[in-house]
Amino acid sequence: MSAYIVGRLAAVVPVLLGISVVVFVLLRLTPGDPALMLAGPQASRDELDAVRRSLGLDQPIPVQFALWLGRAVRGDLGRSSLLGSQVSELVVKRFGNTLLLAATSLVLATAIAIPAGIVSARLRGSPFDNLVMGLTLLANCMPSYWTGLMLILLFTATLGWLPSGGMYDVTGSGGLLDLARHLVMPTLTLGLLSTALIARMMRASMLDVLRLDHLTTARSKGLSERAVTLRHAVKLALLPVITVMGIRFGYLLGGAAITETVFNWPGVGLQLYQAIAARDYAVVQGTVLMVATVFVLLNLAVDVAYAFIDPRIRYR
After folding, report:
1. SS3 assignment, position 34
2. pLDDT band at 299 (very low <50, low <70, confident <90, very high)
């Protein structure tokens, strides 16, 4: 087990390096001049050149990347050209908000999807099964930005029950209840697709497991279908579902930009969107590197968790 973990951790380095190279090059190929956005459209050529030198943009791209990589290895992700703050501080400050949103979305999706998938598999072909499959298919077809806007239209513009954006009311108490009210719609929006995916995966996995020979033997010995399902089938069926949940959590962390933008949620997704719009290279590179690192480590954690769930699995 330890050798497997060490090997996987070693494989993280080239993955993160490749992601850094791709993001670095794509940013430099994106239309727009960071110096012009900082200095303003009325800036002279000398002023623009001075800004480029201060940002290091006057160097060749390989030199820029080497300098940035050398600082990143030491834990220095640079300084935001727009805000003047350290990128690591900005990312850490916003990352907790995104982590909260992603975690609540995944918990909600899991709480709904796993029971729905189990019951749907047990009642295969029933009206309940058809309803679950129809709803998951519909959820897969709904873009998150559209879902978010429809929720705002319903719960804010029409019913007036929930705030349309932000994390706390400007004039509110800033307490837990205020946070919960602001969290409802982003959580529903972000967790909808995960709910559909996990439910379908759980149903398919349960259908495969329920056909196993040793479960048939357990039934023949007098165990009720409920006992067979809860004691044996669910645990085995969870193996592929855990993989999906781990990957989905990584996607929720990195793919929350649209949801955070719709609801003005102050997370790394919104920060990344704003940094791309402002051509703030350091913030974009630092945010992507942080999210990619968390995503890779989550995949490693999921793989390691396999051995604790199924004793038949051993890593050498």
Report:
1. helix
2. confident
User: Taking Cα atoms as reference points, which of 22, 11, 15 lies closest to residue 285?
Assistant: 22
- Could you tell me how far CA 132 lies from the centroid of its own chain? 24
β-bridge partners, 79: 86
pLDDT at site 91: 84
* DSSP three-state, residue 175: coil
Supply 152's token pair.
Answer: 């705002």
- Characterize 206-238 residue by residue with b for buried, 16 or more Cβ atoms within 10 angstroms of its Cβ, and e for exposed: bbebbeeeebeebeeeeeeeeebbeebbbebbb
Question: Side-chain half-sphere of 264: how many Cα atoms within 13 Å?
Answer: 9
Provide the whole-model pTM. 0.79
Annotate 256-304 with DSSP letters as a single string: -HHHHHHTT--SHHHHHHHHHHTT-HHHHHHHHHHHHHHHHHHHHHHHH
For residue 279, report the phi and psi dihedrals to the nearest 5 degrees.
55, 40
Question: Which residue is it, tokens 């300084």?
Answer: 79
Residues 168-214 pLDDT 10s: 887 766 678 888 888 999 999 988 888 998 999 889 888 888 777 76
Q: Which domains are assigned to the chain?
A: 2-73 (no CATH), 87-309 (1.10.3720.10)
141: DSSP letter = T
Residues 6+ apart with CB under 8 A from 248: 106, 109, 194, 197, 198
Give which of 93, 72, 99, 96 is closest to 250, Cα–Cα: 99
Strand partners, 86: 79
Alpha helices in the chain (DSSP H): 2-29, 34-39, 45-55, 61-73, 87-122, 127-140, 144-151, 176-209, 213-220, 225-228, 234-254, 257-262, 268-277, 281-309
